[in-house]
Amino acid sequence: MRFASEQQRTCWIVALLLTSALVDAHISAADAPPNIVFIMADDLGHGALGCYGQDKIATPNIDRIAAEGMLFSQAYAGSHVCQPSRSVLMTGLHTGHTPVRANDTRQFLLDEDVTVAELLKSAGYATGGFGKWGLGYEGTSGHPNRQGFDEFYGQYLQVHAHFYYPFWIWHNDQKVMLPENEGRKQARYIADETHRHALDFIRAHHEGPFFAYLPYIIPHVELVVPEDSEEPYRGKFPQVRIDDPREGYLGSEDGLTTFAGMVSRLDDQVGDVLDLLEELGVAHSTIVIFTSDNGAQGGTWREMNAFFDSTGGLRGNKGAFYEGGLRVPFLARWPARIQPGSTSDHICCFQDMLPTCCDIAGIESPAETDGISIMPTLTGEGAQDEHLALYWEYPRRETIGRATRMGDWKAVQPRPDRPVELYNLAADPAEETDVAAAHPALLREIISYMDGAHVPPREHPGPAIRSGVSDYVR
To answer: How is 420-468 classified by DSSP, letter by letter?
Structure first.
């Protein structure tokens, strides 16, 4: 190529270098692992969300994930209660194998346990967690900073996470005091503080890749939310007082309004995350997953759940092996890969998240997992492997209760001294008719599978922590 002048030649070279740099940057961005945002509500039944049929509570931001991504109709939590469910999520092992199998402060992760955060960190991800941990506390091997998280802000012990106005919170190893909340004052709503730190983490690491794990505590008891979230619902619902029988927990004079306000506040926070990803220019390269740790709260909340149909007509609540305790909302948005407005009836569970995250990050999943990557379902590329069955168990003194889903069949044995119940979910999604007597061969097959899915739990090193309410709030 001939140039009229040296200046023209210099300009051409500069333009070529700039073009090459832009092309390299584009290729690099295309090849870079996507960011992962995993938002998990606490005790949120799928029926409480607009995208699953709710018509009394506004959830436009969570519904937006469904509209711009994929809605799963048959997704399951790792357990019917929070602590083992989180262990299944982090380790990719179902409750017959996972290290933490009960809501028990003596149980926490050990150094040899491998978490999804550790795997992603080893692949170059910045890892942050914000909310309720439940798998180890200060001074234990289960502390989140020892389990793969660069940063964690929240409540490490699950009983501490029952309170929205605690007088302290943990930021990594630092105990951050909140004197504004002492004396039962309601000054700093901890769900807002946690959310603020989560947004700061995303801002700080938006150049990626990052893994933002947001196990938010809304709408777990206590039943309390700042007034601005209740305001849109005032006067719209019957006046129902909802109390919690546990000493020190706040109830609500207007429980339906408070619950709706809590769900809407969570929805606002989800909207903040989505908007921030757009603002930072990383929405296209970020997968956002939204779910809940188990089904809707039971007990004194049953009247409230019935009013809002929080379980979507399914039997049972949190703490039960029936569908209402295990079936959860599950939504995924990834503009680069997931078809907007799509739905899936693929049967998946929390143990699938570890191999799925490994697939997303482009790294090999450990052989020791009970999970199956759902990437083919999310992207529509390749054949999706299916589970032979899903399994859940929960210790009851020296025995266990257990359940299995095998295809359309669901077996439930709440206690070993009770017979195994059998339901056909295709014909009977509300699990109203036990058909065990009519299918003896199938029942034997399922029982054999459940027997093989259980491995005796390890000894747990931790002491039982029996702190009172005053240890967390005054």
So the answer is: PEEEETTT-TT-----GGG-HHHHHHHHHHHHHH--PPPP--PPPP---
String of b and e for 437-449 (b: at least 16 CB within 10 Å)?
eeeeebbeebbee
Please give the Cα distance from 223 to 242 (Å, whole number): 8
- DSSP for 354-372 reads HHHHHHHHT-PPPSS-S--
- CA 96 to CA 281: how far, in whole Å? 42
What gap in Å lies between CA 179 and CA 187, rounded to an integer?
9
Question: If you search the block for the tokens 């032979």, which residue do you land on?
Answer: 388
Q: Are 148 and 135 in contact (CB under 8 A)?
A: no
How many C-beta atoms lie closer than 10 Å to residue 179's C-beta?
A: 11
List the Cα angle 248/253/259 in 5-degree steps: 85
Q: How far apart are CA 330 and CA 73, in angstroms?
A: 8
DSSP state of 2: -
Kindly report the pTM of this predicted structure: 0.92
Does position 122 have pLDDT exceeding 80, yes or no?
yes
What is the sign, positive or negative, of the torsion defined by CA atoms of 250, 254, 256, 259? negative
Confidence category of residue 472, pLDDT binned at 50, 70, 90: low
Which amino acid makes up residue 389?
A: A
390 forms beta bridges with 405
Residue 155 or residue 221, greater confidence = 155
Q: Which residue is it, tokens 């859940």?
A: 392
Q: Over 90: is that where the pLDDT of 320 sits?
A: yes
Q: Which distant-in-sequence residues (6+ apart) come within 8 Å of 51 by Cβ?
A: 59, 62, 63, 65, 66, 67, 71, 329, 331
Amino acid at 249: Y
Gap between the Cα atoms of 227 and 250, Å rounded:
15
Q: Is the pLDDT of residue 2 over 50?
A: no
pLDDT tens, 281-302? 999 999 999 999 999 988 777 8
Rounded to 5°, angle at Cα 196 from 158 and 301: 40
Whether the per-residue pLDDT at 155 is higher than 70: the answer is: yes
